[in-house]
Fold Enoyl-CoA hydratase.
Amino acid sequence: MAYENIQVEKKDGVGIVTLHRPQALNALCAALVDEVGQAMRTFDADPEVGCIILTGSEKAFAAGADIKEMKDKSYQDVADEDFITDDWEVITTIRKPVIAAVSGYALGGGCEFAMMCDFIIAADTAKFGQPEIKLGTIPGAGGTQRLTRAVGKSLAMYLCLTGDMIDAETALRAGLVAKVVPADSLQEEAMKAAKTIAGLSQPVVRTCKESVNRAFETTLAEGMRFERRLFHSTFALDDRTEGMSAFAEKRKPNWKNR
Ligand code: CO8
C-alpha cells in the first residue's frame, strides 16, 4: 500500500508508522489521519506484528490538526460531516499495544494523537500543548478529556486555557509520558520497549491492555471484578502454564501465543 503522508515499516515484530509531512510539521490533514488509520488496522491484523510505534520527525511529532485545511469551514460544515469522529479515534480501537515516540512538537491534535496511544516515550526535546484556544477554538479530540485524566485538573486547565507548552520533564512529572530519553536515542528506546512487548505472549498482552483501559471507563469496584475475571482467564492459556513452568525451571519461556 502506497502512502503519501506517512511511512510504514515492519521490523523485529514491530510495526512502525512515521508521520511524514515535513513541509507542515506533520500537521494532521484528513488524508494523513485516514492513512494512519489504514496502517494501524493493517498492523493490527498482521500476525507478525506484536506492537506498533507511532512517531514523527525530530522537529515535530505533529503540530496539530491542519489549520489551513479547516480554517474556512463553517459550523454547518463541521456539524454536517461530524468533523473529528471515528477516523481520529482509530488508534484507540487497535488491540495491539501502540507506543507514541514523541520528539519536538506534540501540539493540539498532535498531543491528542499521542494520548490515544497506550503510552508515550518522549525525547528530551518534546513539547506538549493544547494551543487551540489561541486559534479561537478548543481541543476536539481528547485535549480536555484524556489530558485531564492523565495530568489532573489544574495542569490540564492551565494548558487548555493558556495554550502554553510544557517540556518533556514536566510532562514526565505530571504523568503524561512514561519515560524521557535523549533525543538521539528515542527511536532505539521505543524499539526496545516495543520489542519487549512483541516478544511476550500476545493473548496475555492483549488481555493486559484491555484490563488497564477498563480503568478509564468504569468504577473501581467494577474494574476490579473485570480484572479478576481476566486474570482467571489467563489460566486457560498454554502460555500461562509455560510462563510459570519456565520460571520454576529457570529457563526462558517459549510462548505459543495460545
Ligand atoms: N496546520 C497547518 N500547517 C501548520 C501547522 C498546523 N497545525 N503547524 C505548522 N504548520 C506549517 C506552517 O504554516 C509552516 O508552513 P509554511 O512554511 O508553508 O508557512 C510550516 O508548517 C512550518 O511551521 P512554522 O514556520 O510555523 O515553524 P516554527 O518552527 O516557526 O513554529 C510551531 C513551530 C510553534 C509549532 C508553529 O508552527 C505553530 O504554532 N503551529 C500551530 C500549532 C497549533 O496551533 N496547533 C493546534 C492546531 S488546532 C488542533 O490541533 C485542533 C485539534 C482538534 C482535533 C482534530 C481536528 C481535525
In short: The chain has a mean pLDDT of 96. The CA atoms of residues 51 and 97 lie 5 Å apart.
